[in-house]
Design goal:
The chain has two domains: 6-187, no CATH class; 190-276 and 355-483, no CATH class. It has 18 helices and no strands. With 484 residues, it is mostly helical. It has helices at 6-22, 27-46, 50-69, 73-110, 128-144, 153-161, 174-177, 189-222, 229-260, 278-284, 287-298, 308-326, 330-348, 368-389, 393-403, 414-418, 422-437, 454-471.
């Protein structure tokens, strides 16, 4: 079920009313409703794949209990590895089997051998990368002693399948979300209104900005061989805006929806395009995944401790694995490696934690130095996103090569052909303006209440709602990260 669909517009109020007005006096019934609603939400896409998430839930529930019930360190480790191998095994089969088979075929073909292996004709279950990591965090934290295992299967099932963030995150830790199912939730008008503001802004980012940028970015990437470098750069820029608005828009809707039910999810994006270096960018982009890899992979490998070789090795491992997590394509691996190359000079010079606060923290406008830093970081991310968006590595290289050709200095006449609307350019400027104004909050509209005039606030809300209505496509448009 898509957030930007009529189905969800009907589903959400029904669950909300049942949650607060029918089952509000019984915590167990509320949790049961959350679990059931989450299965309906996920099964709306394809009910057959409910078996996978239910199996993972049962597996990790019993493994968590098994880890604490045994006194043998060896048995504890065996149970942990069962969880890791089974969960990653499902992920590997559905997401990476064909990638490895095809690459093995290509490798053997170089030496004149033909492998008679067949690819699997299977559908990638939506959200499998997200809920797999969520259940794994539970097993690992129980093994480490950071979390006591739950004895309540309903609470655990609701935690694993929690519908607002089930399909595309944030990837919640069991230490944060699971305890919230044990506490009585009281309806908070203020928190719910803030959640609605966040949902509204998330829909604006997805429907008005991302979906309309996608029209032109898709055209440009699909016809890159016939277009000049100037147009290709615009296409890369539009995709850079698209992927942020699409993914952070989903996170805003997920976090805002959670607030309606009395849950607090972690912030997943902290205005990353205002970053002054790549290290700051990765502290602000897809925070739930970045911190997951930091805590469960980077630090166990030794982190940034040790010699130069260890730092370089761990940096490349974390970024390449992060890239591979996104998809079974060499473009994602190179995207990860490129970000590692961006990051390494900062790490090796101990400047990777220079920019921990928000840019222009005590002023309305950035300094000239900050502006240059933001622009240079933004341009680096644009070129990295080209690999992320391209069909294959060759496409990405030729795309970048065309940008660095003489045609980059040619006025992009093709914009008239694809009909790039001035209204979209104005809306993009408006979007960045609102994001800049609200950059110190949890989301862009977090501090909108400082505008004392109720008339001005509701005029602003009405404008956002109007623009969503105007630009919403009649056919459903999926979120980019559903494919991961």
């Amino acid at each position: 079920m898509l957030f930007n669909s009529l189905d969800f517009a009907i589903f959400l109020p029904i669950v909300f009313i049942l949650y607060w007005f029918v089952f509000n006096k019984n915590l167990k019934h509320q949790n049961l409703l959350v679990a059931f609603s989450s299965y309906v939400f996920y099964g709306w896409w394809d009910y057959r794949f409910l078996s996978l998430i239910i199996f993972s839930t049962i597996l990790d529930y019993w493994i968590g209990r098994g880890i604490v019930s045994t006194n043998s360190p060896k048995n504890k480790k065996i149970l942990l590895w069962v969880s890791i191998l089974v969960n990653l095994g499902f992920l590997g089969v559905f997401k990476y089997y064909n990638f490895f088979i095809d690459n093995f075929k290509s490798a053997f073909a170089i030496f004149g051998y033909e492998l008679n292996t067949n690819s699997l004709n299977i559908i990638l279950p939506v959200g499998i990368s997200f809920y797999t990591f969520q259940t794994l965090s539970y097993s690992i934290d129980v093994y480490r002693g950071n979390l006591k295992p739950t004895n309540d299967f309903v609470k655990f099932a609701a935690f694993v399948s929690f519908f607002p963030q089930l399909v595309a995150g944030p990837i919640e830790r069991a230490t944060n979300l699971l305890p919230q199912f044990y506490k009585k939730r009281n309806f908070s008008y203020e928190n719910s209104v803030n959640g609605l503001r966040q949902i509204l802004w998330g829909l604006f980012k997805k429907v008005v900005i991302a979906d309309n940028c996608a029209v032109y970015a898709n055209y440009i990437f699909e016809n890159s061989a016939e277009l000049p470098g100037s147009t290709l750069f615009i296409g890369a820029l539009l995709f850079t805006i698209q992927i942020y608005c699409d993914f952070s828009g989903y996170s805003d809707i997920a976090i805002g929806t959670s607030k309606l039910f009395g849950f607090n999810l972690m912030q997943n994006f902290a205005f990353p395009y205002f970053s002054r270096d790549i290290a700051e960018f990765w502290r602000r982009w897809h925070i739930s995944l970045s911190t997951w890899f930091r805590d469960y992979l980077y630090i166990p490998l030794g982190g940034s401790k040790g010699g130069v070789k260890v730092k370089i090795r761990n940096t490349f491992i974390i970024f390449i694995v992060s890239g591979f997590w996104h998809g079974a394509n060499w473009t994602f691996i190179i995207w990860g490696a490129l970000n590692a190359i961006y990051f390494l000079p900062l790490l090796l010079s101990n400047k990777n934690r220079n920019n921990l606060g928000m840019v222009a923290e005590n002023s309305m406008f950035p300094s000239l130095k900050e502006l240059v830093q933001m622009l240079s970081t933004f341009i680096l991310t644009i070129f990295a996103w080209i690999f992320f968006r391209s069909e294959n590595v060759g496409h990405a290289i030729s795309y970048i090569g065309s940008i660095f050709s003489e045609s980059f200095f040619v006025y992009p006449p093709d914009l008239n052909v694809i009909g790039l609307q001035k209204i979209l350019i104005i809306l993009i400027i408006f979007f960045f303006g609102i994001e800049w104004y609200g950059r110190k909050g949890e989301h862009a509209l977090d501090h909108l209440t400082i505008i004392k005039s109720k008339f001005l606030r509701w005029t602003f809300y009405s404008f956002i709602i109007f623009m969503i209505g105007v630009f919403m496509y009649t056919e459903k448009t999926s979120f980019i990260y559903f494919q991961f």
